[in-house]
Design goal:
Largest sheet: 2 strands, antiparallel
Structural class: mainly alpha
Number of helices: 6
Radius of gyration: 23 Å
Shape: globular
Order of helices and strands: HHHHHEEH
Strand order of the largest sheet: 1-2
Number of strands: 2
Strand content: under 5%
Distance between the termini: 73 Å
């Protein structure tokens, strides 16, 4: 059965370039009933759309099968990289080369406000009574003194 194409899909040729990562993920004890290409495209759909596993469109394999493979593919090795990380990195690098760029990015741009605020975000909160940001734990009670 042909399934419809989604914007998150990659071509079969692109998948064949990284198929070996997924073929070696687990020992094959019987022939596969589901094509790994469809499972990989389903994982890409979940990653791109950010939806729940059970919300996976019905023309993909069953969500339980996709989740099972995702769990295997996302396990980190001794270097801290998963099979999924390696395959996605290889796909990005090959696309960069095809587009005439270097395989790896030479520069990264970060938003300084996001980075600066990342470590203190849990310590600070917004108090609409004070109309400012601040450490709420240090201020104690809002109601001090007589009413």
């Amino acid at each position: 059965m042909m399934r419809r194409a989604y914007p998150s899909d990659i071509t079969k040729e692109q998948f064949e370039a990284v198929r070996y990562w997924f073929d070696t993920a687990r020992k094959v004890t019987r022939p596969r009933k589901i094509d790994l290409y469809d499972i990989f495209c389903a994982v890409l759909y979940i990653l791109k759309e950010g939806c729940r596993w059970r919300s996976l469109p019905h023309d993909f394999p069953k969500w339980e099968n996709v989740y099972y493979h995702y769990r295997i593919w996302s396990q980190k090795d001794e270097n801290g990289q998963s099979i999924l990380d390696k395959a996605l990195e290889e796909l990005v690098m090959s696309e960069r080369v095809i587009n005439g760029r270097q395989p790896r990015a030479s520069m990264t741009i970060l938003d300084s406000k996001s980075v600066k605020n990342a470590f203190t975000a849990e310590e600070k909160g917004y108090d609409s009574g004070k109309k400012n940001l601040g450490n709420q734990a240090a201020s104690g009670s809002r109601y001090t003194g007589a009413a």
